[in-house]
Amino acid sequence: MFPFKLSLNTSTLLPYGLGVKEQVRVAAEAGYEGIELWVRDIEAYLAEGGELQELRRYIEDHGLKVANAIAFWAWADRDPEARQRGFDQAEKEMEMLAELGCLAAAAPPFGQVAHVTLDEFAASFAKLAELARRIGIEPYLEFWGKAARLNSLKDAIYVAQASGVADAKILIDPFHMYTGGSELRDLEGLPGNRIGIVHVNDYPAAPSRSEIQDAHRVFPGDGIAPSEALARTLADAGYEGYLSLELFMDSYDGLTALETAKLGIAKIREAYSL
After folding, report:
1. Buried b (16+ CB within 10 A) or exposed e, 101-110
2. Contact at 8 Å (CB) between 9 and 36?
3. Is-above-0.85 flag for pTM?
4. DSSP-based three-state secondary structure for 121
5. pLDDT class for 175, splitting at 50, 70, 90?
6. pLDDT tens track for 112-134
7. pLDDT of residue 114
8. Taking the CB of residue 1, how many other CB atoms lie within 10 A of it?
9. Nearest to 227 by CA among 198, 193, 248
């Protein structure tokens, strides 16, 4: 049984240097239902004369949903001026994403956050969520395992609860769970409707947890991540949303972009089937 939907985070296609429309075409031809676009790729498309409505029609014609967007806003930066610039950037980019038909945007601990308390994170996330939902975008609170703060699932759950944001949603990523020391049991009690999206990937036993980097991520099932147990935990929580393949590999041993995307689907289904 496979109760989840399939999505492709376009970071996975970085070695191919594809434009956003080619990313969409590859994801659709491979068989994904959703796609996670990077804001910088959308902006590059627009800078070359593209139009948002034309891109939206292209995505819809290929049967895809823009499940989430990857952006970098200093929404919780310690410096008030930098934080305000982060909110200004977020507003501009979310308005663009809403016009594109995007459902959500990731909100990781980007910026200078080493001395930001979790309660301060919560206050900033409440402000971000109010802005995002007014525009029509759902912010997905994301923790980064190697961030100075907001680096664990427990931190993210606390911030979501302390923010007072109704039905605040968290982005789950096994790589960040591993690097930040989160455990599967930390997911217990988190209902599926509070999970925004799940990035799927795997990681090898070496380099060590302290030295491993994003570029070391591998396909689900090719490393030591507890993918099967994670799948069961997600299903038990009632999560039926997207599993989105997010890799940062330098190359794929001669595979084409389409072959890589199709391999990703096969790997996800094998690692996350119940």
Report:
1. bbbbbbbbbb
2. yes
3. yes
4. helix
5. very high
6. 999 999 999 999 999 999 999 99
7. 97
8. 7
9. 198
Chain segment 65-103, per-residue pLDDT in tens: 999 999 999 999 999 999 999 999 999 999 999 999 999
Residue pair 231/274 in contact (Cβ under 8 Å)? The answer is yes
Contact 110, 66 (CB under 8 A): no
Residues 6+ apart with CB under 8 A from 192: 234, 237, 238, 239, 240, 241
At residue 23, what are phi and psi to the nearest 5 degrees? -60, -45
Place of tokens 């990781």: 108
| CA dihedral of 145, 146, 148, 154, whole degrees rounded to 10 | 10
Q: 63 CB contacts (<8 Å, ≥6 apart)?
A: 28, 33
Q: Write out the E strands in 14-161.
A: 34-38, 65-70, 104-107, 138-142
